[in-house]
Amino acid sequence: MNQALRDELRKIVGETGYLAAAAIAERRADMLGRPGELRSEALVRPASTAEVSAVLRACHAARQPVVVHGGLTGLVRGTDAGPGELILSLERMDRIEEIDPVSRTATAQAGVKLQALQEAAGEKGLMFPLDLGARGTATIGGNVATNAGGNRVVRYGMMREMVLGLEAVLADGTVVSALNRLIKNNAGYDVKQLFVGSEGTLGVVTRAVVRLRERPRGQQVALAASERFQGVVALLRQVDQALGGRLSAFEVMWREHYELVTRPPATSVSPFAGAHPYCVLIESQGDADAAPLAGALEAAQGAGLLADAVVARSQAERNALWGIRDDVGQLRRLAPIFAFDVSLPIAAMEPYVAGVRSRLAAKWPGAHCSTFGHLADGNLHFVFAPGSADEETRRAVEEIVYLPLEAIGGSVSAEHGIGLEKKRWLRLCRTPEEIALMRALKSALDPLGILNPGKVIDPAA
Amino acid sequence: MNQALRDELRKIVGETGYLAAAAIAERRADMLGRPGELRSEALVRPASTAEVSAVLRACHAARQPVVVHGGLTGLVRGTDAGPGELILSLERMDRIEEIDPVSRTATAQAGVKLQALQEAAGEKGLMFPLDLGARGTATIGGNVATNAGGNRVVRYGMMREMVLGLEAVLADGTVVSALNRLIKNNAGYDVKQLFVGSEGTLGVVTRAVVRLRERPRGQQVALAASERFQGVVALLRQVDQALGGRLSAFEVMWREHYELVTRPPATSVSPFAGAHPYCVLIESQGDADAAPLAGALEAAQGAGLLADAVVARSQAERNALWGIRDDVGQLRRLAPIFAFDVSLPIAAMEPYVAGVRSRLAAKWPGAHCSTFGHLADGNLHFVFAPGSADEETRRAVEEIVYLPLEAIGGSVSAEHGIGLEKKRWLRLCRTPEEIALMRALKSALDPLGILNPGKVIDPAA
Fold first, then answer.
1. Percent residues over pLDDT 70 in chain B
2. Where is A20: in which H helix or E strand?
3. What is the ipTM of this complex?
4. 3-state SS assignment for residue B4
5. Which residues of A200-222 are buried (b: 16+ CB within 10 A; e: fewer)?
6. Is residue A386 over pLDDT 90?
7. Which of the two residues, A226 and B151, has the higher pLDDT score?
8. Is B245 left (phi over 0), alpha (psi -120 to 50) or beta?
9. Of A11, A181, A413, B29, whose Cβ has the fewest other Cβ atoms within 10 Å?
């Protein structure tokens, strides 16, 4: 980066808006916390959309590559930055601009933390339904850029379904104001869709309008155990039918993972006496009491689908059951680990999981393999701890997890995105024509390729 | 269109797949049924994606403009075709390829009728929640291309939210297979979004994978009357909170429209003794009995929000109440009419409607003006019958309805789309940067401009 550009950027964002290499090196690029992933000489923290625009205009003129940073809770090396790359962080644009309780929308700057928006909505008797473990750190801009998912997609969809409007800045500094607040708006192409889930490669999200929901009158939580995977699948349909629209989470844990998070040193305790191949956390939102959920589980038990089940009777019990599902922190004890985030048709899930687990076990006998996930969405997480994290091991583990997905119509990323980490596997789950179209969009919106270069896709050959 | 191209097209689609001018002139372009809107010399009806691809390859080589036809139930002149334009109809691609009851998805060709898909899902105990009056004629491909909305958007979203995967053919004949079946798939850009709601200008949708839901155990319907618009707005929030996720329709009718559809010669009868400024049809899906809905209405009545309310006690009564809302056919008695489909923030709705109605009444005293719509989505329909349909009248009516939308963040099209009819008004609800981006997408995907030329946006100057 040349001195003239550096001076210009400093002038645009001011002294508090500019960080140099030493301060940057103290940061982590993402939740993985690998050393040396942020090697930039400069980081700018613009305080307004106008400043973001001016920064990008200057970078565009100088053909300066830019890496966009939100809350840095990613898992796919989407925010790594090399020595020649400028980092643009949205962290100072952290204002909730409006909560409209009549239209039930919120307008927030990109740097607003997810949890801050959840709480602001709650204060008005409303709810922003996106929720994920990193809520205290992840930002709305990052949630948009990565099309965040989380625990309640079965009911509310992903971030894409919650975004009504966006403001984004293109690579050349053009501000595209598409701050629609309407649930229905078919006036021309819905251009905001371009920026959702494109991981900062097509534009920089600066503001978003999101749809809010009424705050549910009650939340009911149960934990069910089943001996058979097909019992779990049948349970999903039965419970979804019985709750008639109130099912808000259906989180399955395979035994090896369940034991990890319910035995010391983990602090959660299983409510079940014995061990079961599958445990499912079920949540409904909107029921004032537990009777509908309990009734649905009794019916499932009567149909032979369940080995055991408990329904929480207090907020403390609800928190305790969610605590089992949320304690993925136990996986850190097993480091080094590889974390996967695949999706696949539910009908293909049982043989796929069995195949992956047995191939991993054959190659790394005794290594821990956690399997859990959002079954209703077809989304599974694997966390595997083979005792080593070198590139050769990574490649071998990835082949076992990813290669079978191609034949069954699965995806290498349900929700984490592609970043740098999964780029080589994109071809397993997207057709050559889809990838060519992605490249055409990249060329149309960022012809010089300065936005997050090399992330998600490689430029056209 | 030259003879060589005609011969080539005839060879691709065969004799049953080819229609000439006389047969075309018997068709109507859309629900408006204007004369002379289909002036093409040729219409092709390909029977497969491969044939669609071959047709477009040939047209691309010859720079032949192509207008895409689905079920022809549009309202914005999106399917008009001039003498030099080839019509490509998807009507022969009408096969439901798969209903997967485990992953709860359906795969259908573009020409499948909406109602056929609804019924096929129902036979498997599932539901495809998109629903609109033209269900027997509208097609899945058209629903995708126009991002169809309808009566249950408040609960299930628009067609965009239901489409998991698409197959589309680009202007040059490239088949983009993006037939994702997964609820969560963040592997690169979600390119299918380009084709949803772009009215056939960026590609021809040939197949779609859609998400299905469990068939609700019950449907409850009520009709409520209120003296004040603010009562209706408060009722929406109260009922939505009380039903906790089961509210599936909230349809408001202003008095002038309500009287049109509940007095002879209309066959519906109002369940209320007196007349009220606002009547609201409320539906919940998923409740086996009417108690929750009745309870919510009692609470609203207790809070002084309602003047009257009835809850249907049988399927016949439910059908009767929906019959009031569905009998938009009464509007045909008033022909010639202008039909509008705007959306705007709920907080701006009361003064906007009052202003539009009073300006229309001032200019055309005594002319009928129906106002009704999907209030929860901010979507209102106006149907105005000034007694004349000439261009000058149209322009004057459009100015009264559309111009105030700019200042309040409204849209000239909530769900019908832009087509030819609303193109001149697009600038009221999209920024210049959004429109420039639409043009950039059009140039990137259809550089020769052969797909639905002149629809939605004009090419870059």
1. 100
2. strand A18-20
3. 0.96
4. helix
5. bbbbbbbbbbbbbbbbbeebbbb
6. yes
7. A226
8. left
9. A11
